[in-house]
Amino acid sequence: MTVKRALITGITGQDGSYLAEFLLGQGYEVIGMVRRSSTINFERIEHIQDQLTLVSGDLMDQISLIDILEKHRPNEIYNLAAQSFVQTSWSQPVFTGEVTGLGVTRVLDAMRIVDPDIRFYQASSSEMFGKVREVPQTELTPFYPRSPYGVAKVYGHWITVNYRESYNLFACSGICFNHESPRRGHEFVTRKVARAAARIKRGLEKELRLGNIDSQRDWGYAPDYVRGMWMMLQQDQPDDYVLATGRTHTVRRFVELAFDCVGLDYQQYVKLDPAFMRPADVDILVGDPSKARQKMGWEASTSFETLVELMVRAELEMIGAED
Ligand code: NDP
Ligand code: GDP
């Protein structure tokens, strides 16, 4: 059997690193697109770097994408690259639109020009549901994004659907609800909280400043979600799928459990800070993953409680390693 080749954009990110591990495990040759930066930021892929082919490119640069496809001829593309942080999307709305929105068109166009038989995955987001029109959210729930990030993701979703219908491409959009891990960016609330709980426990910090702790999210574990992305590209027909746990919890509950893990009462350490409030927030997200379960047999395997615990434990271990 010939070895399958996959291109991952955003390979240095949380999902990119887990997906690369997963695909290597499936016997794939993995090409990772990285953008030039003044310092090396390969922490998440250091342990597998010798098994990857890293190539230089950027979602802002059409030619770089075409060149990569011509040179490496992947069978599958996973477009995970994005300006992915909601809060930053208010301070850099145009940049977010360029990368997170138009960047998708650049990849799709490169694929259409070089090889329309490539299978394509777009990293869409539950942030597209924003001010939710129904609970839980399915593939058919109308979008109502609440941030420049959410708006850009709606564009990315629809251009994926449109290229599938216009050019008969095998293009799928995975509408992923929040998924976390010890590799999550430090600015996201789960990582921020897990890290703070561990650092306060060890006496390295004294307090944790947060914004809206009443908002609710459907949090799962990232390795489950990258498996779902791959499954979408193995189906007979391209389609769009919600990946979610089907359960939702407040940020407050996440904080409470994280501090419980280290034997502390969160109320003594958490301070509300307007700096972390958003101009418009998404109050509640909870996905209905029935379609992914029925059509692909996908399910989230890690509970919320386990997720919180494994994230806090990882932070404690990291501090231990730094000692
Ligand atoms: P991360 O922020 O961890 O990773 C984003 C990746 O995109 C990084 O590798 C980053 O590179 C890269 N990138 C950013 N801008 C560009 C650019 N202009 N050209 C090329 N690469 C670029 O995100 P996650 O791994 O958490 O998420 C993966 C994808 O899934 C994103 O598109 C995100 O929006 C989406 N998503 C994530 C969810 C989640 O809960 N994690 C939920 C729903 C959707 P660098 O390291 O150089 O910055
Ligand atoms: P998002 O769902 O992609 O925006 O993921 P985040 O982890 O950034 O935020 C999840 C929720 O936590 C949002 O409703 C935020 O408003 C809320 N939140 C409360 N305090 C904070 C904070 O200090 N940082 C972040 N990132 N989010 C916070």
Walkthrough of the structure:
There is one protein chain. This protein has 323 residues and is an alpha/beta fold. The protein has 2 domains: 5-179 and 219-243, 3-Layer(aba) Sandwich (Rossmann fold), CATH 3.40.50; 185-217 and 248-284 and 298-322, UDP-galactose 4-epimerase, domain 1, CATH 3.90.25.10. The chain contains 10 helices and 13 strands. The chain has helices at residues 14-25, 62-72, 88-91, 93-114, 148-167, 189-201, 222-233, 251-261, 290-296, 304-322; strands at 5-9, 29-34, 52-56, 76-79, 119-125, 170-176, 179-180, 208-210, 216-217, 220-221, 240-243, 249-250, 270-272. Helix 5 (148-167) links the parallel strand 5 (119-125) and strand 6. Helix 6 (189-201) crosses helix 10 (304-322) and helix 8 crosses helix 10 (304-322). It is globular. It starts with a strand and ends with a helix. The relative contact order is 0.13. The model has no long low-confidence stretch (mean pLDDT 97). The chain binds NADPH dihydro-nicotinamide-adenine-dinucleotide phosphate and guanosine-5'-diphosphate. Guanosine-5'-diphosphate binds at residues 86, 127, 178, 187-190, 192, 210-213, 215, 217, 251, 276, 278, 281-282.
